[in-house]
Design brief:
Blueprint: H1 9-13, E1 21-26, H2 32-47, E2 51-55, H3 60-68, H4 74-79, E3 83-87, H5 96-110, E4 114-118, H6 120-125, H7 130-148, E5 151-157, H8 170-173, E6 176-185, E7 188-198, E8 207-211, E9 217-219, E10 242-243, H9 248-254, E11 257-258, E12 261-267, H10 273-289, E13 294-297, H11 304-313, H12 318-321, E14 325-330, H13 331-334, E15 343-346, H14 351-369, E16 374-378, H15 379-405, E17 408-413, H16 420-423, E18 430-437, E19 440-447, E20 453-458, E21 465-470
Parallel strand pairs: 1-5, 1-6, 2-3, 2-4, 4-5, 12-17, 12-18, 13-14, 13-16, 14-15, 16-17
Antiparallel strand pairs: 6-7, 7-8, 8-9, 10-11, 18-19, 19-20, 20-21
Length: 472
Amino acid sequence: MNPTGIPGFDEFVGGLPKGELVVVAGGPGTGKTIFSASFLYWGAVKYGERGVYASFAEDRSTFMNNMRGLGFDFEKLEQQGLFKFLDLLTLMEAGTSELFETILSEVSSFGAKRLVIDSLTAIAQGVANPRELRVFLHSLLSRVMRAMNCTTILIEEVPLGKRWIGYGFEEFVASAVILLERLLLEDKFLRRLRIIKLRGAEVPNPRACFTLKDGFKVFPPLKVKFPEKLLKFQPIPDPPGAHSTGIRDLDEVLGGYPRAGLVLFEIDARITHKQLHLLIAPAVINALHNGKPAIFIPLITAGPEDFKKIFSIYSAPVEEVKSRLRIFLRKDLAEKYEASGYLMAYEPKGLEEAMNKTTSIVEELAKKTGKPPICVFSSDAIGLYYGIEGVLQAVYNSIVVAKKTGGLIIWVMESTFPELAQRLPPMVSMHLKVARKHGCLLFYGVKPRTPLFAVEADVHEGLLLTKLTPIL
């Protein structure tokens, strides 16, 4: 397999067959040109491989201007002798034989190892007999790709509403077939890449999300890998009149979390706790580093060791923040651990007693520190003890606490009680959703409305940083 250099793609499938034909198909606006241009650009920049773009769709000036907007300086690559643009619009009437000879001559003299033909659809419109297309493809396969070891991408347009690719023969000739699609996730556009065929490779996950933000980028299934050597967490200042989310990208999108407000995170059932922590934990860690108190009513399955691990990852050892930290655990679970001062054992007796105890601790810590608290409560944990009406009462009580202390209450809602998905959103200041598609963690705001983002874990700087990339 030959690495493409396209961000995320090689991690996803390992590259493309070297010296073979690759069909990249999709409807209008799905990203075919950007994928193919990225293949040439990164091949030149990362691997020094010469590339040719043979275009039947647009002229050189239009191509260069469009690519420059993505940060691809193909003019510089031309000057370095790594790229050539072939404007073949004027040869459309000459027939496939002359087209092929022109491409063959240019690729051979240039010494290209990567070729893009844009597109088979345009060529097909200029020939009367489909047999000419078959001859063109077989000649291309034998004389350009395999003889010159030149990996070739053939772009193909899939008309809107059509469910199959092409003319019925190129899929069999090609060693790889990639389909680019636009889908809807609720009312958000989601981009998906599908591997229809990839000869010589196993593809256990043939689908992946991608974005056209600053070029073509694929999001392989998210695997959260913690850095081996940790650097000290750098707290983020609160935005004016708000609490920081602890994530710079998210602060830019939302302007922070509202003071004296409630934030609802609605979580897809397929989201792991480790993935969820990428969005929830930074706000808590940032608040603790800024001297604020933090109070948790966690999921039933969460224990002290889980919190210690999270805090250590973000360079916030529990011992350093325990005076401002309170975690409510069932009495039978808390008794398994030594008294630590920050674990609050409780028994699920009456809802009113539980709310009074929680409220008094939140207000006490707010008064002691002189700073607004941040609280993270699981609606599922409360619902399992007190039912849906108990959750609604607890949410109403938390509104009062938030207003009184100026703090932030984050409610995490999973899928145990579907009815809450209709009843909680009207009660909160901010409604955010976390979903998963083809292994990619996705985030978007319902209130306020935001674009769709892919969530990534960036650890290359020795910190676990949450990154948000818009799906454009």
